[in-house]
């Protein structure tokens, strides 16, 4: 970490960027590329890879200067999988060539990413995955099926885990790859949800050829690499920075203030309780981000993601109840394939239905409870009888 880079220095560099590339007259993509090249994309990344090798906390100074100048952002909600999962994994396990190739277009938003992890028979027990990758010279031939893949219909690249040795126990025979979603053999099909939309997909992989140069980490150590992805995923879902009354508690709080005729004593007490819990979760998220300054995300992110799912479901339920008959209305059942999820910009019916998936996506609440119990509270692990059994010998 560079000792010469402090808050004053990053502000100076940000003002130099703004002077050389005025947001009012510079195209959005050109500005974002210049920002990346100036090391102001994510300041804690190494120099030459969008950063300054500076403390993560200094990013706030950069963001404040750019916001004041009305500079464009990279639409982080649209590229959240790339920013929150692919990028830290590539940084941690990628080769120098992979980092140079993928990080800049990922951050700028020129290339959208998706995550090919879950399978029909390997969701909560992800390590039981059956998608196979067989070595063929300098390539791997991949066959299998993935499911619940957000943004697969818009993605150019995917982070993929596949089984490369069925003779080893399930956690040890997995390797991690970068998959080109435009390659022959990649078939993306929509999965329509309870909201009527299809932001998720199922992906069929039939003879997809991935060059070995697109492997992340050693062969057979994909589970270790995947843990970096999963920990960052839970932090990005449950620990995102939001203002007070941001997120799901915001719309129901506004409804309460603006529609006094809807109030009852019972909903008043529930709203007060959930408002306090939402604020506690927000402040806990701030603490978690401060901890990230000193190192990698840990299992605490699982606790934040648990709170995120529970609160979203309880708050959206309260909102529908508060609105009465209005809460049963739903704006549009048209089957569309959105590129991002907008909780606060939609109606109460959408929030209520969409929040049901929060306790499944990004790790089921049941699995995350186990992680918190074992890795945060230090409780004994659940007994496992498959730890040393070859994957091919497991019952499925």
Content of β-strand: 5-15%
The percent range for helix content is 40-55%
Number of distinct helices: 11
Unreliable stretches (pLDDT < 50, length at least 5) are: none
Mean pLDDT: 91
What would you call the shape?
A: globular
Our measurement of the CA-to-CA distance between the termini, rounded to an integer number of angstroms, reads 48 Å
Order of helix and strand elements from N to C terminus:
HHHHHEEEEEEEEHHHHHH
Based on DSSP secondary structure assignment, what is the total number of beta strands? 8
Biggest beta sheet summary: 4 strands, mixed
Query: In which order are the strands of the major sheet placed?
Result: 1-4-5-8
User: Which structural class is indicated by helix and strand composition?
Assistant: alpha+beta
Radius of gyration: 22 Å
Describe the secondary structure blueprint for this structure:
Blueprint lengths: L6 H14 L7 H10 L21 H10 L11 H14 L2 H13 L4 E4 L15 E5 L2 E8 L10 E7 L10 E7 L5 E6 L8 E12 L3 E2 L5 H17 L10 H10 L6 H28 L7 H24 L24 H7 L10 H12 L20
Parallel strand pairs: 1-4
Antiparallel strand pairs: 2-3, 3-7, 4-5, 5-8, 6-7
């Amino acid at each position: 970490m560079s000792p010469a880079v402090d808050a004053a220095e990053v502000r100076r560099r940000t003002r130099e960027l703004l002077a050389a590339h005025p947001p009012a007259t510079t195209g959005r993509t050109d500005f974002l590329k210049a920002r990346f090249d100036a090391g102001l994309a994510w300041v804690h990344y190494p120099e030459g890879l969008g950063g300054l090798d500076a403390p993560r906390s200094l990013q706030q100074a950069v963001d404040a200067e750019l916001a004041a100048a009305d500079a464009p952002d990279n639409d982080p909600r649209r590229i959240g999988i790339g920013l929150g999962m692919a990028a830290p994994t590539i940084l941690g396990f990628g080769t120098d060539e992979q980092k140079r190739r993928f990080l800049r277009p990922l951050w700028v938003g020129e290339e959208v990413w998706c995550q090919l992890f879950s399978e029909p028979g390997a969701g909560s027990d992800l390590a039981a995955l059956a998608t196979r990758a067989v070595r063929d010279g300098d390539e791997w031939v991949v066959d299998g099926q993935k499911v619940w893949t957000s943004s697969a219909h818009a993605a150019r690249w995917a982070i993929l885990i596949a089984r490369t040795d069925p003779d080893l126990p399930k956690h040890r025979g997995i390797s991690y790859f970068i998959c080109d979603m435009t390659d022959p053999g990649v078939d993306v099909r929509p999965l329509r949800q309870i909201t009527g939309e299809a932001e998720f997909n199922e992906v069929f992989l039939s003879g997809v050829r991935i060059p070995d140069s697109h492997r992340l980490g050693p062969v057979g150590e994909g589970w270790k690499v995947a843990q970096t992805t999963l920990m960052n995923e839970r932090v990005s879902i449950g620990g995102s920075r939001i203002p007070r009354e941001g997120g799901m508690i915001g719309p129901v709080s506004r409804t309460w203030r603006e529609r006094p005729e809807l109030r009852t004593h019972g909903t008043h007490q529930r709203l007060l309780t959930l408002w306090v819990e939402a604020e506690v979760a927000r402040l806990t998220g701030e603490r978690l981000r401060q901890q990230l300054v000193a190192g990698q995300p840990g299992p605490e992110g699982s606790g934040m993601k648990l709170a995120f799912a529970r609160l979203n479901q309880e708050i959206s339920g309260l909102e529908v109840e508060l609105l009465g008959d209005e809460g049963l209305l739903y704006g549009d059942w048209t089957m569309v394939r959105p590129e991002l999820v907008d909780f606060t910009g939609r109606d109460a019916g959408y929030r209520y239905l969409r929040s049901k998936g929060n306790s499944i996506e990004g790790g089921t609440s049941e699995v995350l409870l186990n992680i918190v119990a074992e890795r945060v509270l230090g409780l004994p692990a659940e007994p496992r009888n498959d730890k040393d059994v070859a994957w091919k010998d497991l019952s499925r």
